[in-house]
């Protein structure tokens, strides 16, 4: 059986996380939270958050739960998005 990489799906999830991250405001700085801040809040390296947002890794479920918590959404809301929209964004960035 051929192993699927789900590259487009992982990239779409990365775009979703970036979109949600841009909606969360840090009350101390009055700015959107950065990858670095999200990494500090979740206890993961900035590189890990970047890899997830670029769709280059398979994040663990626990990691996605932490990310959703810090983005103030449920895990269901994290995954509840229009896949076609994000796949189009992914294709434009190449």
Annotation keywords:
mainly alpha; two-stranded antiparallel ribbon; 2 strands; 94 residues
Describe this structure in words.
This protein has helices at 7-21, 35-42, 46-54, 61-70, 75-79, 83-92; strands at 25-26, 31-32. With 94 residues, it is mostly helical. Strands 1-2 form a two-stranded antiparallel sheet. The mean pLDDT is 89.
Compact description:
This protein has 94 residues and is mostly helical.
Instruction: Write the H/E string, N to C.
Output: HEEHHHHH
What is the number of strand segments? 2
Instruction: Write down the overall geometry.
Output: globular
User: What class, by secondary structure content?
Assistant: mainly alpha
Q: Please compute the radius of gyration using only Cα atoms.
A: 13 Å
Mean pLDDT: 89
| Low-pLDDT residue spans | none
- Give the strand order, joined by hyphens, for the main sheet: 1-2
Query: Number of DSSP helices?
Result: 6
Q: Give the distance, in angstroms, between the N- and C-terminal Cα atoms.
A: 29 Å
Strand portion, in percent?
under 5%
Largest sheet: 2 strands, antiparallel
Q: How helix-rich are the residues, as a percent range?
A: 55-70%
